[in-house]
Amino acid sequence: MDLGISGKRAIVCASSKGLGLGCARALAEAGVDLVINARGIEALEAAAQSIREEFGVTVSAVAADITQAEGRAAVLKAAGSADILVNNAGGPPPGMWTDWSREDFIRALDANMLTPIAMMQAVLPGMMDRGWGRVVNITSQSVKAPIPQLGLSNSARAGLTGFVGGTSRQVAPSGVTINNMQPGIHATDRADSLDAGVAKAEGISVEEARQRRAATIPARRYGTAEEFGATCAFLCSQHAGFIVGQNILLDGGAINSTM
Description:
Layout: E1 9-12, H1 18-29, E2 33-38, H2 41-55, E3 59-63, H3 69-79, E4 84-87, H4 102-130, E5 133-138, H5 151-171, E6 176-183, H6 189-202, H7 206-215, H8 225-235, E7 247-250
Parallel strand pairs: 1-2, 1-4, 2-3, 4-5, 5-6, 6-7
Helix pairs in contact: 1-2, 1-8, 4-5, 6-7
């Protein structure tokens, strides 16, 4: 399917690996020029070069901390007039409610709520002026079904979801859509970290921890960055203009819900 976005320009945050890279690659395959961002320069440059060689699009790599004002400014300057924004950031560490201080919550809010809001506030006016734009926020299945040990993530991402719920309806008349993707477990470094934590706590191997988790998913496997990216690219396409303020769950059926 021709997504109708060849020649558009996208910012994809936290895109040197994992789900962010999956989104960047899928957009590049659709002919979108990219500004990709991450803190680590080596992995970011490697991702950028691989995308350039495989898809022939223009890719600017900006190594910066997107949670800091200077980092956001550098990414936005490199992007110029962005048509597409994919917000993404790694989740805060797991734990118990007794573990977290006010400072822990502030860090989680900065990374997973306030930074994507700041990026949207920066790009939405231009998108609205041009009469077209797409924003996709990568959140988590924990917004729909909170995960007890991920209280920091539950809180911050739920706040972002509430912001999108109202803002998406305000910008939709200008041809701009904002939607959220709620990933379940995918085969990424984040899943490896969570599985390693379970393995350590229960005295089992990481592979056993992974098999146990996969067995709880109706699809009986972890998702892939490639299929996640393909969904992101569709939400950014010309065909998705009537999808507004939605939370798209990609969890292999793990959450048993009709709504």
